[in-house]
Amino acid sequence: MNSHDETMQSVLEALVEVTRALCASVEHEDFASATRQLDERESLLAKQSVLVAKHCAAKRPGADELRQLFDSLKQVDQELITLFGRKKAEISGKIELAQNQRRLLAYSR
């Protein structure tokens, strides 16, 4: 593996790691950490984009070695999307319940 591929591998590994940490932060509703992790993830995605563009331009043969990392990243991204959807539904449900309780309180007065 050449240095470009090693850099790509490092960025992909970091993306997988930060996305897993982000999932854990969202799961535990640690939104301060989640915000920092989203910023870090955004920075890593920008680096990945540049590296992929260079890789495609050079048509390097090392792409197969990195496929497993790309697959891992896709998997944790899907977990993150699912988790955000679930948390959004939970929070929406809590808001609706609170609004209904407020209406009942107002009506009972």
Short description:
The chain is mostly helical and 109 residues long. It has helices spanning 3-27, 31-58, 63-108.
Provide the low-confidence segments as ranges. Answer: none
CA-based shape? rod-shaped
Query: Biggest β-sheet: count, sense, barrel?
Result: none
Q: Would you tell me the structural class of the helices and strands?
A: mainly alpha
Question: Which short descriptors sum up this protein?
Answer:
109 residues; mainly alpha; 91% helix; rod-shaped
Can you walk through the features of this model?
This protein has 109 residues and is mostly helical. The chain has one domain. Helices cover 91% and strands 0% of the residues. It contains three helices and no strands. The protein has helices at 3-27, 31-58, 63-108. α1 (3-27) runs antiparallel to α2 (31-58) and α1 (3-27) packs parallel to α3. The model has no long low-confidence stretch (mean pLDDT 85).
Per-chain topology:
Blueprint: H1 3-27, H2 31-58, H3 63-108
